[in-house]
Amino acid sequence: MITKTDAAERQLNTAIRLFFENRDHLSSYALAVASREVTDDVIQSRHSELYQRALARVGDPLKVRLSYWKVLERLIGKDKFDKNFIDLHNKWKRFLKHADKDPDAEIEPFTTKLLALVIIWAIKNYVLLTQHLTIEMKTFFVWFAVAEPQLVKSVPEDMMTKAIAEMRSNISGDPYDRNTLETIYTAMTDV
Questions:
Q1: CB contact at 8 A, 161 and 151
Q2: Apex CA 54: angle with CA 15 and CA 39, to 5°?
Q3: Residue 31: which of 176, 142, 140 has the closest Cα?
Q4: What is the pLDDT of residue 156?
Q5: How many Cβ atoms sit within 10 Å of the Cβ of residue 30?
């Protein structure tokens, strides 16, 4: 049997592989969003249990963040977190899932950085539920910590700190460069 969490893991691992392969960012985006949505729902259904676990870890009820939307609200600010933001946030998701109201619609491409943010949110949810990272998720997290260090507050394991330092020393230029991403993909698949 396949659980919802199993399905979310498979979707997320595939999204990460597609990201590093630089093969199909649209599909990577759709899979990462789907994974995050599934884990959002599972988190909601297990809210009490997950809240208690997170509270034990962080020690401060004001620092416990279980909901994707609550974290965004905190980052953006309650006064700016409104329907317009939610509509903008869901624009790509709706475009990729539905064509019943506007079958001839077109949309501007999203950036690789936006895709990376979508994937990192999906990873956050997955780890909240399972307390572990797959090799794809570890690789992505390490790369993300190098590409966007200002967005990474803490590193989950000491081993990850070493991996981040090693990856940082191996990336000489733009971490979003196609060749860099493909090199990471090759290294990840050789494991």
A1: no
A2: 30
A3: 140
A4: 64
A5: 20
Q: How far apart are CA 6 and CA 8, in angstroms?
A: 5
Q: How far is CA 72 from CA 25, 75, 79, 87, 187, in A?
A: 23, 5, 12, 14, 33
The answer to whether 172 and 10 are in contact (CB under 8 A) is no
Q: Does residue 35 contact residue 137 with C-beta atoms inside 8 Å? A: no
Task: Decide: 140 and 14 in contact? Cβ < 8 Å.
Answer: no
Note the pLDDT tens digit of each residue in 21-62. 988 899 999 999 999 999 989 988 888 887 888 888 878 887
| Predicted confidence (pLDDT) per residue in 49-60, tens digit | 878 888 888 788
CA gap 110, 114 in Å, rounded: 7
